[in-house]
Design goal:
2 copies of one chain form a homodimer.
Chain A (H helix, E strand, L loop, with lengths): L7 H11 L16 H19 L3 H7 L2 E2 L5 E2 L4 H10 L18 H35 L2 H12 L3 E6 L15 E4 L5 E11 L8 E10 L10 E6 L1 E3 L5 E4 L2 E6 L10 E14 L5 H37 L23 H33 L3 H36 L11 H11 L6 H12 L2 H22 L5 H24 L4 H37 L4 H18 L2 H10 L3 H5 L6
Parallel strand pairs in A: 3-6, 4-6
Antiparallel strand pairs in A: 1-2, 4-5, 5-11, 6-7, 7-11, 8-9, 10-11
Helix pairs in contact in A: 1-2, 1-8, 2-5, 5-6, 5-7, 5-8, 7-8, 7-9, 7-10, 8-9, 8-14, 8-15, 9-10, 9-11, 9-12, 9-14, 11-14, 12-13, 12-14, 13-14, 13-15, 13-16, 14-15, 14-16
Cofactor (chains A, B): FAD
Keywords (chains A, B): FAD, Flavoprotein, Oxidoreductase
Family (chains A, B): Belongs to the acyl-CoA dehydrogenase family.
């Protein structure tokens, strides 16, 4: 069975030594956030993931979910008790306000816990994850009455949440959505239509399921401007909060998928189900975007999470598997062979994964901190800066982390050789599970288009210009210092590639939008490499400081410095390739005759 | 259900317009090789793959193989009849000499057919593929008596073959092999030990299974120099060829794997089974290498094959799936949305796959032709050139084609969005099946080491020097011609990167072998990119000539020219990145403390 150990120590290092988490005590929910309390929370959460969730991961994959004749769905053995433990620990409502049943703690800590839970058992973690997303949308856009009626039970995990967007004819293009909402006399709506690919659409983990459903009110405009958001509870809820009648929503079937078998992916049929409008009519997409943005960060972290757990297992295997001898002579002369970690190419694979994981964790925590600042800071300018950066980086993190997370799961599997292809080691499950993260919540190509088509030009390019400025300001002093120069100078050069690419887009994509489309994927990855590089520079700086301050940390900090160096030498040079691809433009691909594909 | 159409037309173009297959009529087996006959053979083979093998691919995955209590193994429904049809068509012995039951045709044609069969049903194609590999080893190293006894039944598909190398403690490192061979009085051996991961180790497709087994004769030296090769038939064979008693070899269990469920991956137990020495004692690895080299090319082609079939399905889907609008305005204004092929990023993914497939097919056919020349030419110098090139390129093709084949299967799946993650579309099966090709027959890291550690330095670097010379000579006139320059000049620059990388290795790896290990994987991919680029230059040249000669082929040839251009603009620039990674050396990764991984 695969192992898993939550990276609590690394998370604390990133929070306090790199991101200066302690400086944000003025934000609501942060006042109690001493390093000691944070350590305690993360250790407790990590333990739950290691001891309760991880042991259910392989069985969850093997047993999967089952739909029964009455339309009910059962989750794999143990999921129910695990969900109860997860809810009882207060983890679902960790970042929700206390008045709505939450713990009122920073979203940053919820993000850390999401990583641990997704590493331990991604299919399981999606259930509370979707509840968190639905809860966030409700808290932002629901009426006070709706919040009181639904939020506490969701935050406390008695009820769960889902998001219902996709229909057979409409995935990316929500304008094609046909699910109908007919006004009823009591002010509610009657919802009819079919939704597909609904994660956690039906299950046996909670007493009720609160579906957030996009539908078109009769007579509403066509396209995305006629879409509204509705609450459709599985069981109707009385004014007193008591569960009432079963609503007209049911699971028609569950999908057979490549992975995440422990999560029920449902076809949901709405047959005149009673729904309650959330926010304004025809502004549903707006409200849903709150949930989607949070979900996108959550999915980004799934990429990191699977990369991390796959890494841990591959590193252990590489130290234990005896096969062949080091190129420089036996390192384990008394054994029948050397452990395969003596081989440079095995180290290359491990370090490629590690060099992603630690910086990606830093970026994920930084993004969550930006979300906390955007929602909780009293400083309007700080809020705007944080919001701009979060908007810019959310598609980048989603696209890059899930692409690299999947590649890393594949690399980790590769280290196992033939055993990696066998179910028993669990490595192939990580690959299958990681694969979905590149697809759902907007396929990665859509993230790239969102970045290039919307996030870059927004507000006259304010967010990207701020990113350039802030990164340049970070790097300049560090590149001038001999100790930090090896970690800062390469990123300056990569930043230069990013700026050239951005300039090229400004000059070539306005008049010819296909150039933006053709460049989008490479641009997303280019930005991602620069962001990871800048994070490594910050980590290296913190590692040097920590090492000077706490000599007993030298070995750990040296490992970070070497990983940073590895990133600069072997991973960052990719920015040049991305730039070359971007500036080659769209002409060749667009000239290709459709019938010749 | 996924579609599949064998690329017969493209194969013929590559054979006759690019590789000048007609020039090799002087080789034995080639005399009848007119384009018309070749077309007829490939069409017939393609049809068998399309109509018989492809329809069994998804059911084969879903049903898998089953081991019964008596140790027998049944293959998925339909496999037996399909194997009979495959054998009856003469496809197994296509390239085997007529005197041993084969068709005596070029291995080049067998290679083309292997691609088609692996696209249609990889798990199935492995059964005859292993028989072909075992047959080749027997024909090369077996005694005349052994050849007569076993070869015809194998070539005709009544019996099948396997290769038994791996043991629990020994995969890559065959020196650790412990399976024992005790001499018997009759000159045969008694084989005892356990082999794992034996593809097609037991099944119900043939009357007998001829296992080729590596074992150590009692008293033989330790390490790889004490390994011998044995024939261990499932049923002993009388001098008259009649099947006799069941031998002491049995399938202990079959593995649960990520993919290729239609192929039985067996734990094989040898309990004093009667075995017959092949070739010289203690020279078994040598004999097995014949099988392994052929198998490596076969596995390389599996990478191509899955990339091809995944491409075909993704291209079809991209033309049919209506979602969103083109960035430049509606292209299908009367429909609810445009087909997603209007999007540059979708075209990017399709062209990345296509630009690999067509050149990879050219390289695979060229490698097979080299094998034919190496084995059949009467010109010693031509034999040596072909053998050198084949030795150099075999690990490159295996490593690069299977890595890119897998990546391409993932890309093709991505084009399907959420539907790609659902079993029904078959796209996720291509990904799961393609994954094994990166692992078996020597994991790709081992291919890279074989290339850098053995193939490069062999004979004073004769093979790589010849590759440089021949590529430079191909490019020079084409780079001087305006029409072909766009396809030749970029490859010249990539070749320059390869030469720099080779020079760096010569200067830095002799004294420090870890530098070779650290560079190996990138070097393999760098060489692969150059080889694919050189093939695209040849294809472009042929396309220009064909277009001038046959104007009705213009549209098809223009597609090839655009694909070549796409390759040069977007894929070839990777050589610079690979060079940067190679020259960064091993220091950083080797300084990393083992306990810090």
């Amino acid at each position: 069975m695969p192992i898993y150990k939550a990276p609590v120590e690394d998370t604390l290092f990133l929070l306090y030594d790199v991101l200066n988490f302690q400086r944000f005590g003025n934000l609501s929910g942060f006042a109690d956030g001493t390093p000691e309390l944070t350590a305690q929370i993360l250790s407790e959460g990590g333990k739950l993931c290691e001891e309760v969730l991880a042991p259910l991961n392989q069985t969850g994959d093997a047993k999967g979910c089952a739909r029964h004749e009455d339309g009910s769905v059962s989750t794999p053995p143990g999921f129910n008790a695990a969900h109860a433990a997860f809810a009882a620990g207060g983890w679902i409502g960790l970042a929700a306000p206390e008045e709505y049943g939450g713990q009122g703690l920073p979203y940053t800590l919820a993000m850390a816990m999401n990583e641990f839970a997704s590493s331990a058992n991604m299919a399981f973690a999606m259930y509370p994850g979707l509840t968190q997303g639905a809860l966030a949308a409700l808290l932002r856009h629901g009426s006070e009455e709706q919040k009181k009626l639904y939020a506490p039970n969701m935050a406390e995990g008695r009820w769960s949440g889902t998001m219902n967007l996709t229909e057979p004819q409409c995935g990316t293009d929500l304008g094609l959505l046909t699910t109908k909402a007919r006004p009823r006399e009591d002010g509610s709506y009657s919802i009819t239509g079919q939704k597909i690919f609904i994660s956690a659409g039906e299950h046996d983990l909670t007493e009720n399921i609160i579906h957030l459903v996009l539908a078109r009110i009769e007579g509403a405009p066509a396209g995305v401007k006629g879409i509204s958001l509705f609450i459709v509870p599985k069981f109707l809820v009385g004014g007193d909060g008591a569960l009432g009648a079963r609503n007209g929503v049911s699971c028609g079937s569950i999908e057979e998928k490549m992975g995440i078998h422990g999560n029920a992916t449902c076809v949901m049929n709405y047959d005149g189900a009673q729904g309650f409008l959330v926010g304004e009519a025809n502004r549903g997409l707006n409200a849903m975007f709150v949930m989607m943005n949070e979900a996108r960060l959550g999915v980004a972290v799934q990429g990191l999470a699977l990369s991390e757990v796959a890494y841990q297992n591959a590193a252990l295997y590489a130290k234990e598997r005896l096969q062949g001898r080091a190129l420089t002579g036996p390192k384990n002369p008394d054994g029948p062979a050397d452990p395969i970690i003596v081989h440079p190419d095995v180290r290359r694979m491990l370090l490629e994964i590690k060099a992603f994981n630690e910086a990606a964790r830093g970026l994920a925590l930084a993004a969550a901190l930006d979300s906390d600042i955007a929602h909780r800071s009293e400083d309007a300018s700080a809020r705007q800066t944080a919001e701009d950066r979060l908007g810019l980086l959310t598609p980048v993190l989603k696209g890059v982390f899930t692409d690299m997370g999947f590649e890393n799961a594949v690399k980790a599997q590769q280290i196992f050789g033939g055993s990696g292809y066998i179910r028993e080691t669990g490595m192939e499950q990580f690959v299958r599970d990681a694969r979905i993260a590149m697809i759902y919540e907007g396929a990665n190509g859509i993230q790239a288009l969102d970045l290039v088509g919307r996030k870059l030009p927004r507000d006259g390019g304010r967010a990207i210009m701020a990113f350039f400025k802030e990164t340049a300001e970070l790097l300049a002093p560090l590149a001038a210092d001999e100790a930090t120069k090896p970690y800062a100078a390469p990123v300056q050069s990569a930043l230069d590639d990013l700026q050239k690419a951005t300039m090229w887009l400004m000059q070539n994509a306005m008049t010819k939008p296909d150039n933006a489309g053709a460049a989008s994927y490479d641009y997303m990855h280019l930005l991602g490499r620069v962001a990871l590089g800048a994070m490594w520079t910050r980590i290296a700086q913190a590692a040097l400081e920590t090492k000077a301050r706490e000599p007993e940390q030298s070995a750990r900090m040296d490992a970070k410095l070497l990983t940073a160096r590895f990133y600069m030498e072997r991973m960052l040079p990719e920015t040049r390739l991305r730039l070359a691809r971007i500036t080659s433009g769209a002409d060749t691909m667009m000239s290709f005759a459709e019938e010749m594909f």
